[in-house]
Amino acid sequence: MRLLVTGGAGYVGGVTAAVLAEGGHEVTVIDDLSTGNRDGVHPAARFIEAPVAEVAGDVLAEGDFDGVLHFAARSLVGESCEDPAAYWHGNVGTSLALLDAMRATGTTNLVFSSTAATYGEPERVPITEDMPKAPTNPYGATKLAIDHAITSYAEAYGLAATSLRYFNVAGAWGGFGENRVVETHLIPLVLQVALGHRDKILVFGDDWPTADGTCVRDYIHVKDLADAHLLALESNEAGRHRIYNLGSGDGYSVRQVIDTCREVTGREIPEQLAPRRAGDPATLIASSAKAVEELGWRPERTDLRTIVADAWEFTEALGDRAHSAPA
Ligand code: UDP
């Protein structure tokens, strides 16, 4: 297939573009490199460095794109609270421009990178797609707004679309993984401590209502996630917007993650207790039953050790290319 990947220099977009390129698909990546890395783009992909909203129309007008995978977005929860305008314009504005470009060029097949943050603090776990959507920060609110826009475009204009609501994505694949300038996620931060690029990992609260008092999350391997995008793309139907949660269905606490990182790396990883982080729900676990049933999705790397081991292999290999590397 001939595919457009927005945000293909970022983590999930980069890995998915790599999986698609290695699978023989013709991949064009648009990314403005505001947060992504040029070397995070698979060498077989055509790369256009530009804001998606500015160039998507011209790129799609070249014609014959079989589908669009839309990853380009700002995705830092804390930043979204401090600078919501950047998120509303950056995420919603860009997505509307892309949807309009798709409509204008008759490109109908879309997979959108949505998030568990659209649900906010859940009433119960595992979280199913029909549960209330009540995002607790502008990041989640912008992703939910885009989901609503996609639903309307599907109903009115015949767009064939799927939104995939990711839980905690981690791991690496084929030499592509997490290397952000500003890192806030648990597993890459813990591995940077293992590597000696940071002194310690802060544990945000140990008085949560969970078994060991630290927050519980559902970690999903980025390769399993990438596979779901292709399944969605191949089964999209005109006029229909489907939404699926993607997680492993298992919850691991912050302490369990740190201990697994110690086991996998064999390194000492100092930790320090810190106050709770604002906006963190105690427990987030996905039900991916709908994706398994309807998409035929079969996650293969659900074991936390495998996820951490793949992330560690990538992190170690990064060396000086790591943004966290000491100057
Ligand atoms: N966390 C932590 N220390 C850190 C980063 C994260 O204790 O330095 C915790 C965070 O409070 C949450 C879990 O690890 O409970 C996962 O956080 P992350 O930012 O990776 O993903 P999120 O669940 O926020 O999407």
Your description of this structure?
The protein has 327 residues and is α/β, with parallel strands linked by helices. The chain has 2 domains: 2-167 and 221-245, NAD(P)-binding Rossmann-like Domain (Rossmann fold, 3-Layer(aba) Sandwich); 172-218 and 249-321, UDP-galactose 4-epimerase, domain 1 (Alpha-Beta Complex). The chain is built from 10 helices and 13 strands. It has a 7-stranded parallel β-sheet, with helices on both faces. Helix 1 (11-22) links the parallel strand 1 and strand 2. Helix 6 packs parallel to helix 8 (254-265), helix 6 packs across helix 10 and helix 8 packs across helix 10 (304-318). It is globular, with a radius of gyration of 19 Å. Bound molecules: uridine-5'-diphosphate. Uridine-5'-diphosphate (UDP) is lined by residues 168, 184-186, 189, 201-204, 215, 217, 254, 277, 280.
Strand content: 15-25%
- Which ligands, by name, code or SMILES, are bound? uridine-5'-diphosphate
Termini, distance in Å?
A: 42 Å
Low-confidence stretches: none
Kindly report the spatial arrangement of strands forming the biggest sheet: 3-2-1-4-5-6-11
Please name the fourth-level CATH homologous superfamily of the largest domain: NAD(P)-binding Rossmann-like Domain
Instruction: Return the CATH class of the largest domain.
Output: Alpha Beta
- At the fold tier of CATH, the topology name of the largest domain is Rossmann fold
Let me know the largest β-sheet: 7 strands, parallel
Number of domains: 2
pLDDT averaged over residues: 97
Shape: globular
- Kindly provide the radius of gyration, computed on alpha-carbon positions and rounded to a whole number of angstroms: 19 Å
What pattern of helices and strands is seen along the backbone?
EHEEHEHHEHEEHEEEHEEHEHH
What share of the residues lie within helices? Answer: 25-40%
What is the overall number of helices? 10
